[in-house]
Queue: 3 jobs
Job 1
Amino acid sequence: MNNLKEKLIGNGFFLIALSTLSVLALITVFILIEGVPVIAKVGLFNFIFGMKWAPSQGAFGIFPMIVGSVSVTVGAALLGVPTAICCSIFLTEFAPPAVSKIVRPAIQLLAGIPSVVYGFWGLTFIVPAIRNFLGGPGLSVLAGSIILAIMILPTIVSISEVSILALPRQYKEGSLALGATHWQTIRSVLLPAAKSGIMTSVILGMGRAIGETMAVIMVLGNAVALPKSILDPARTLTTNIGIEMGYASGEHQQALFATGIVLLVIIMLLNSAAQLIVQRGRD
Amino acid sequence: MRISPKKSQIIAKTLIWAVAVIVILLLIFIMAYILVKGLPTLSWQFLSEVPRDMGRSGGILSTIVSTLLVTVVAVVVATPLGVGTAFYLTEYTREGRVTRIIRFCAGALAAIPSIVYGLFGFIFFVIYLKLGWSVISGGLTLGVMILPTIIRTSEDAIRAVHPMYRDVSYSLGGTKWQTIVGAVAPSALPGIITGVILGIGRCVAETAAVILTAGSALRMPTSLFSPARTMAVHFYILAREGISMERAYGTAALLIVFILIINVAANILLNKFVAKGR
């Protein structure tokens, strides 16, 4: 009797654990069903490399948005990654315990601030600053990159911090015992040893940047054109969906789901790369 | 000229301290920027009246209620699934293909952008299940979205429970279920609650996924099937359409206050948990 009950409970937990699998399958299937017909009609090549997005004329080319997404993400990484790595070195090596006890939750608080608030702050502070000091409309790739760089900090900091902390003590002690300075130890022993964790964190951070919608929707200007400089406005894959989903219908709406497919594929590739690095680091 | 190791150490240390200080100042600046402009708008009237004239006057009560309802639905759905999955991964199975698949799925769910959750929620809950733009569609979508957060934090919390707890329970003749309920769950509880609180924070902050699934109707929701506009969505619409900057700042300030409370609560719980576990 007791045995049966235990078995039933065990099976119950197994079914619950399958929820992640089934939800992921549902998401993939429903977005594919909605989006694939448009891609099939336009042709995958024309959809991805098409320069013209004019839903009313049935023209669905998302290349400018892919370029937009990639440029804000790369911009965010250029600004955010060095900053984040400095912060994780600070937390693990330089900060006195009392200081890191305050700084760590403060950096994590950055992850809690709603993305619309970042967008609004960017719109009312960063955008005018860029317009006044650097010229252009202000609504730009640069503004988006700055906002995203701040938003991806917590992701990169927390994962790289964990990977630095996970290193065996002997690495650091050995290096210091050989007469290396603290900074030499960090640069030539700790950072290289934690490389796989840091790379994972950077990839996951870039995934967050490419998937962010509400923060960039307010600061990018959203023009469907190839940005020629970092001071030009741009539109990303996510903002394309966010802006037009409100009124799109029929084929136009399906094209937005197709945009979602491309986004999903990029995220899955990044995520698999991150998991691969983690696994390799473990072996 | 070569810089001596000692000098480079000083330069690097200064630089890293400077970066850390700048990041903290940036955080303080963003929060202060919103709070200074928004807190003066917050009044009892602002919190207790429904919006009038598209949000130009009146308060934001209906959006607060909508936020609460959507969040409650999300937490009620995601907590059992998330905590159950965490117990399965830690107590009921060994590391193997099954756990790898489940972990991969949880990782993938965590990586999916919120706008894609919005698309999914729209096509699945709103259209396919015919739930319409409603509290329930929005809540279910957010529930799926916070599932990986709850799984990860619960799993960490359960793993951190000292093996001795389990050994004692088994040696007293406890079954697996009795061990989980009586020995593991109580000591993992603060960690699990932290995960749920973080999930609540994500629900309150989310915009893209709710605007596509709960809609943006300003009326007070009367049931789980009424459309709803959460605070974050209200703030977005006020700011984007330039309806009322003053009210936009006010709503944003309230959001920031909520997020602050949620984060402080999560941290206090986590610190207690860590102190107790080690």
Note: The radius of gyration of chain A is 23 Å.
Job 2
Amino acid sequence: MPEGKYCNKKPIETPEEVNFLLSDTSGNTYYEEMKSLDVDSDLMWATIQKTMKSRLKTWLEICAHCGMCADSCFIYLVNKKDPKQVPAYKIQSTLGEIIKKKGKVDNAFMRHAMEVAWSQCTCCNRCGTYCPHGIDTGIMFGYLRGLLYQQGFVPWEMKIGAGMHRAFRAQMDVTNEDFIETFEWMVEEYEDEYPGLTVPVDVENADILYTVNAREVKHYPEDLAEAAILFHVAGENWTVPTEGWEQTSLAMFAGDWAACKMQVESVYDAMERLKPKRMIGTECGHAHRATVIEGPYWAGREDGLPPVESIHYVEWLAEALREGKLKIDPSKRIKEPVTIQDSCNYIRNQGLKNATREIVSHIVEPGYFIEMSPNKEHNYCCGGGGGFNGIGFFRKQRNQALITKRDQILKTGAKLVLAPCHNCWDAIRDLEEEFEIGIRWSFLKPLVIKMLDLPDHMKPEE
Amino acid sequence: MFKKILFATSATPASDHAARVAFNIARGYDAHLDIFHVLGVPSRGYSQVVVDVKTKERVDVDDEYMSWVKEEVNTYYSKYLENGLKFDINVTVGFPAREILRQAKDTNPDLILLGGTTGDEDESVYKKSVASTTLQKVAKSAKCPVLIVNRPAASFWGGLSNITFGTDFSKSSDKAFDFTIKVAKALDCEVNVFHALDITSVSTGKILSQDDIEQKIREAFRMIRAKYEPALKELKNYSMDVWEGIPYIEIVKYARDNHSDLIVMAHHSKKAKQEDAILGSNVEQVIVRAGCPVISVNR
Amino acid sequence: MHEFLTGICFWIALGVCLIGMLVRFVLYFRGLSWQLDRVAYKAHPIPGMKGAFRSIYKWLLPYGTYGWRTQPFMTAIFFGFHIGAVAVPLFLAGHNLFLESKLGFSLPMLSACVADFLTWMAVISAFFLLLRRIVLPEVRILTTREDYMVLFVSLAPFITGMMARYQVGDYGFWLNMHIFFGELLLIAIPFTKMSHVFLFFASRAQLGMDFGIKRGGMKGTKMAW
């Protein structure tokens, strides 16, 4: 059986197709079908010749096999230094083999490559900063994922995730109406406490266009209210778009580049339609990576920049605190040992470490903040990045990978972990559930709201 | 009076007391009962895995599982569901408070009915990541009155004849009063308006002299008369009282003495002083302690 | 034999090496694609150049980067080998006298004592690099036959050169062997992993531009990636 009912090379395009694939519980049949999925070697080789240029070729070729990347990889360390987990080995034995064999690899090899690409690398890019030759294995794994996706060798949840973006322009089945309705509902719920709280929809020429993660709409709508409250208190002129509000991209994790383009263009269209001064996304790492850092390239923007200046939530928050738009009541600052999780996607891969630390300096009582070790650009992945969190098929491997972060947190002695990234937040939540080390974790918004020093006119009437 | 009731349940013994009240009200007032069960908390990022609240197991949620859970809920309450009760069962996935509020937003019930907290819910890992419990959140944000049955002792609903309305003269208390009058008129009950003077030094900042206390009690009486008596006069039976002490204890005591079968109070969206302390706002304490159902009115 | 090696062979080896390097260098940069690599090279030349320069410079400094500092022993033998492997062939007095006679110009020359030291340092470091390959599981699993060949080809001129230098046995034989292996090395450079002698700069520059333009450089990060 070359193409399965569930598992095949065809991307998911419609809500019906999403539901159909979802109906296969845990993807059991999907993975069964995958065992007999044909490999289209000609297509793969043709794709490689079209898309693999000097950078990737050179990386594969000049790797000196020195093994200096080994210790940089937390998955290698956490798996008892299994040599098969050395980044260079992982990529040479998968992408490297495909190139060597000119795409003529079999089904078993592809399934193995899938396992390596999604369960042995979170695309955290840490190894890239430890290679004397500047070889970024994370980027190569991103490329490999694209090849695997094209051939249908992709974890079930990733296929669904990419399909959601194609069908809904969101990572979950949240429609544009759901988004606006939920946002308005949440704002209504909080307007007693914050008189005048609104959600400005589709306002042109606003200072800020706010974009979110669909999971907030679906499961944590408080986050929307919190964003509204902070913009409101800071006196910002902000808006949300009725279309193009989803900043994330599971398609990026899946390697579905066409869906990446569709998704990011929906956000860029909103920017061009509403002409805001800036775009600000929610506290999410990969969403920022997808829409702000990688997105311009998928959308074919030669300057590598989104249509309007786009910043991460932590950059805005740091700025609002610095400029006094938001005032913190010093007596309400965090007075317990606290640490911060540096998200790979905007700390290592966009250098925003100072923004988060500036926020910390405002909201944490001096002396209570403890850095993880290593930290900033050198911090380890939370253990669930790159799609790892969501893949049931690789749950065991993911839980093993959480140990790095668990031990890092334990070493700080902190009881509270600031996690301004959805993926990190999830991974830390899961590691607490898995290992019960007695920590709490939080996004920044709810913490900041609790310690705001509200101007008098914003206080609710008695 | 009640046409549409949203009964949020865990479909476990923890909700049994509430269930008894829910079915009694629905039957007694010929209301439509929406039995709503949040079957699990989403987990693992965007995976399809949730932790089932009943079995505590990690399960893959799909349509099949959802309809299985629906069937389970139906079976669990089967003895109540006979004889033409108007009801439907809805199950969903999410964080309970949020999903209950979402369901309420979508269906606009006249009353939300909640069971008490389950013991082991407190140990759940999700709890730590959210500021307050399901109960607090729903009571705080719901647009309709929220009826909470916490203790088994509170679940013997034999029709309404006596309501205790606890007031602190706030705006939301006015709303709660309006609701009380509405219920009392519709069901022909006695209403006892009650104010408890908070004499704990925590809130007054000093120890009051007896003269001070009595002076304040007189003031409160005057307030009650002015605010509520005109409306109360339309009822057959009513009384007014002001006691001093720890407010929530006094209200529970008062309701017990008066054989009230319902306490109505306002829920303040304003946060209590020690918001993270175990002692929440008065209404939350009353809910925990009362020997009858408590209705929290918000707006 | 000596005539042959220092005559036509030398010219061929040098030509193949230089032209090969040049061609591959040009091909590398021509093969960069802003859209496929997802780096806007042309749109942001200044941050790109800064990133590229910092990336190369810091990685050329022993212990200049976090990566080097986390593995001090590897860094020691790495630089021990590479400093010798670059300085000795280029600046050895003997080589420059030969160069002078062939091309009419010469580079600065090392004193014999420094040259000896660097040579020994390179050879001993290379021995440790070899040992590392054999002993450490994380390096062994990566190692292929080519890696040993490359190590041999780069080390052979040193060994033969030292044999000649210390006149172990027949000087003329070792000298010819030395020249032969030296020329083999030159020819190997553009076609094997040895290409890293120049592609190192290309690859580092690329990643430097990547980070310098897209991944933090334009946000003010001063890290050496």
Note: The mean pLDDT of chain A is 95.
Job 3
Amino acid sequence: MALKTFIEAIRDGLREEMTRDENVIILGEDVGKKGGVFLVTDGLWDEFGDDRVIDTPLTESQIIGTSIGAAIGGLRPVAEIQFADFIHPAFNQLVSEAARLRYRSNNGYSAPMVVRAPYGGGVHGALYHSQSVEAFYTHVPGLKVVIPSTPSDAKGLLRSCIRDDDPVLFFEHKKMYRSVRGNVPDGEYTVPLGKAQVTHPGTQVTVIAYGLMAHYALEAADRVADDGISVEVVDLRTLRPLDKETVLDSVRKTGKCLVVYEDNRFGGYGAEVAAIVAEEAFDYLDGPVTRIAGPDVPGVPYNHVLEDWFMVNPEKIADGIRKLAAY
Amino acid sequence: MAVTEPSAKAKSGADSDASPAALGADLGLSGDELLEMYRLVALARAVDERMWILNRAGRIPFVISGQGHEGAQVGITWALEKGKDWIAPFYRSIATCLTFGMSPRDIMTAQYATASDPSSGGRQMPGHYGSHEHNLVSVSSPVATQLLHAVGLALAAKIRKTGQVALTIMGEGSSNQGDVHEGLNFAAIHKLPFIFIVENNGYAISVPLARQVAGESVANRAEGYGIPGVTVDGSDVLACYAAARDAVARARAGDGPTLIEAKVTRLTGHSSDDQQTKYRSEEELTSEKSLDPVPKFRQQLVDAGVLTPDAEERIDAAIKESVHDATEYAEAQPDPHPSTAMKWVYAEDWPSETPPPWGLGEATGDPAGAAEAAEAIDESAH
């Protein structure tokens, strides 16, 4: 075990996978000599050289489209989109191409590749450096979407993503890069895709979250414990394929379900989780499935007062838990 | 009919003063190879014409055609190494796919969307060919996306030092997409073994070249990327081969990408759902027939003494038999079963990815009488 920050764990995962498999390459904007704008790939260009750590032009569609072709050609590309906010020009390549390649060729082709992107607000990033974009991609069969919350999970899940035979989007909350530390196991461990984790056992309310919100949900669980409310927190880790079993097991036990996500509330990923719980655990529910999510404005505003208003935080979650518990 | 344009003649080296037997010799092409190229051009046309008959007979709902493009497609594909190099084709690439190893049965099962259709198992519209076995990347409908896949294949070839070349093809209308700029720029920066073919037939569905391409040349755009841009007469099979051969040599030598714009004609509507007389004049359609690569290549080979009456008879008979066989085969192939419809979303099945409330259904396909229908259609085509 070693204590690592979130960003160190991701970097270690990349380095170890590149060492293990010479077909793993990194491509993206500023990922080379600079090591990425957040320094996730710091040092990898020195270690692996121009061929395997490629600075691309400012061309997100090209980054993803080229990765698809490189994956067909036997490489295992790990593409970095500098901010999740800038992934939209690559939407066509991700949705029309990467996601559908296996299905449309009846398993003739596949695109084993990883797209990493920092997402999320609370860092004074305003409308275009704060977005949560997971719902656009969790909607699409053929794509896998992973959002880790701990250094240990980040490294183990990233390994699984790189070794996976399908395209995976791996979103990293940028606020966590240096603020989250945790013990990371030694050796070549992996964390399987499609498995959620109960990070805080409880009996009265289930809170389902991922990414930064998985941390805030734990803080909220501690706060309401003082009010005598027992909360079970489920950290989804993989959003698609969803681990329905862990979610439904927890809700069937507690009878109450609060879904937390940072993205805009309307049509967000948590809406799908809420629908599944309502459909498949209705007989066990002792209250409405509720959501605490980002307000429905087109982006996170810059001014700190407005940003604080936008962001879901432990207290807002705790309020949601209290209301649901009292139902 | 003119044998070759003067400019194309220079490129193909088809010198009218040389003895007929020398045709193709300067390109290293034997008489047998020329005959095989002719067979592929004529086969692609015959398969294509059969598709339209089947469509008009109500057997297949949709056709998208490569008629007028076959000469360029065979000439260019001939320069690549089958089973080694990569092609990311487009929806008119019937001759390309046949030249690179797909069979008339493979093409015809795609028209019928049968379970055995190797391109997609009946999941995609006709025209969306693909075969991993033959290094033909699966085609999608958003245009120009495939350019980046070929660039990625070229990147993989360079990094893995495989010696492969990756080529992509699209129309001039598609060449206006942003992915083309992004991909050419990247391929040129890294001197990737990549070839970009534009089959310029002058129309993006109904919009003529002047309304699509500023300056009316796609090849000229190559200059901005610091790579060669070549314009070639797409009805001149050997000129197309020569241009592609040079591009392949550059790519294998590590000298980077080449853009080849082949001027072709579109002899049919955009698709079976298009009526091109609405936007093209009768005069234009008549005059464009002189650019048809099939009679042009045929005449060139007859004049050179390569295509003898015996050889032509043999090739024609084989093509007729092959188209008949492909039609009959595809007519008799079963539809895919709904129980397979959720396969291959991912490499593995996930319990959380559940079927709809109506389940995975029963097969509705009825191949009964299909063989007789095929027979009738075959008769009508003769």
Note: Residues 31-56 of chain B form the longest helix (26 residues).
